[in-house]
Design a protein that fits this description.
The chain is an all-beta fold. Helices cover about 5% and strands about 45% of the residues.
């Protein structure tokens, strides 16, 4: 078979992952996953590409088959409506005809993937075989559970006690690179007992329970549960989180269920979520509200102090090799919470716990005004992207607002028997 085709999608789609719910591929239901393949085509022939099928268990949770608390589907390893198919948009190709398809496939579904920004369309084909399906050997992500470290194309991300504490430009030889990250800081302050007591907590007060993980060629899913030790024998509600790590980005949604409004016991709640870097001197900061990049040079200027008044929901750090983009979205039940960009650049100011004193820089968000948040389920979603240095972060984020559109057709591309 031929090599994987190169997609015609625009450059800003370089990291897009196509997802198709199993319910839309009903002709493939009941087939063993080992007998399924995803193919893309050039004019002469078709070839398998890397893909992943993530299963859900009877409770709707992702099936994570590794770790201390794995779970399983019923029946395991069989494609059904609750599963999710994933593959890279950059691996899609031309529209095929029956003559190009393998003769030994039993069923095939055509998936059209369209970029609404320019109307361009590429295709992929999901096929079932009577035997073990042809597979690509390509893998886009890797996970080392002993180090709790995940590696993509451009960056590697590591955890310590459930908190990210390692971020580095990925070496092609797999060796560890210099760590850019000092600490991922989550700092919370509030009043208690009708404002008589002021207290604060940080990420070291988090208790983390690692649950399970699964690594495929398209993404790694990592699951954990956490709660905060508040003191006085009180702990916060438990909140669960999945980390989804792909070739070029990571998604970190956090779900929390409150049995009572957060201000029932606490007042004047302020939460700071900050990515504290070791030293990004020479990098540049881009935010959507400012036309020009801001140099990172170790000095906190009046211009930089004004960043703390902005309500921007994303920022980009442009380095010599890559650009790091971070976005944050509050779920609809948290729409009343006020968020502000938080930027600190001061080598001399300590904010323990931290490994390296000072922030060079520290950047994230400040969340306050929790008075209108009620009991129930709440979601906060963060996403981190690793872009090629030459790709404009503003163009990239604009493309995020217009997702690729997928459609499954029903044409039969099987070759007639001879």
């Amino acid at each position: 078979m031929m090599a994987t085709p190169v997609s015609a999608f625009r450059a800003s789609r370089f990291g897009d992952v196509v997802t198709v719910e199993g319910a839309k591929l009903e002709r493939l239901h009941g087939y063993p996953i080992a007998r399924l393949a995803v193919l893309t085509c050039r004019p002469a022939a078709c070839a398998p590409i890397a893909f992943q099928i993530d299963e859900r268990d009877p409770n709707g949770r992702w099936v994570l088959d590794q770790g201390p608390q794995p779970n399983h589907d019923e029946p395991a390893g069989e494609f059904d409506a609750s599963d999710l198919l994933l593959f890279m948009a950059s691996d899609t190709g031309h529209q095929a005809n029956a003559r190009q398809m393998p003769r030994d496939m039993l069923v095939v579904e055509e998936i059209a993937v369209t970029d609404p920004s320019d109307g361009s369309t590429q295709w992929a084909y999901v096929a079932a075989f009577a035997h073990a399906a042809p597979r690509s050997t390509r893998t886009y992500v890797a996970y080392d559970p002993s180090a709790d470290r995940i590696r993509g194309a451009r960056v590697a991300l590591g955890f310590n006690g459930g908190i990210p504490d390692y971020l580095a430009v990925a070496n092609q030889n797999g060796a560890d690179a210099a760590n850019l990250l000092d600490r991922f800081k989550v700092r919370a302050g509030a009043t208690f007992l009708f404002g008589l007591v002021r207290f604060s907590r940080d990420e070291s007060d988090l208790t983390t329970e690692f649950v399970a993980w699964r690594a495929g060629p398209i993404r790694v899913i990592r699951s954990q549960r956490q709660w905060v030790r508040l003191g006085w024998g009180i702990r916060s509600p438990t909140f669960g989180s999945y980390t989804y790590f792909y070739r070029d980005f990571a998604e970190l949604p956090v779900g929390l269920r409150l049995n009572f409004p957060p201000t029932y016991f606490f007042g004047d709640i302020i939460i700071r979520v900050v990515v504290d870097f070791r030293d990004l001197t020479g990098w540049r900061l881009v935010v959507p509200s400012r036309a020009e990049p801001i140099p990172i040079d170790g000095t906190m200027t009046p211009e930089k102090a004004l960043l703390n008044d902005l309500s921007d929901t994303w920022f980009a750090l442009i380095g010599p090799e890559i650009a790091l983009v971070q976005s944050m979205d509050l779920g609809p039940t948290l729409s009343s919470v006020r968020h502000r960009l938080l930027f600190e650049e001061d080598r001399s100011r300590s904010d323990p716990p931290e490994a390296v004193p000072g922030t060079q820089p520290g950047i994230g968000y400040r969340l306050d005004r929790w008075e209108a948040v009620g009991a129930g389920a709440h979601v906060l979603a963060a996403a981190s992207y690793a872009l090629p240095q030459a790709l404009d972060a503003r163009v990239f984020m604009e493309s995020r607002s217009r997702s690729l559109v997928t459609a499954v057709t029903r044409q039969d591309l099987r070759q007639p028997a001879r």
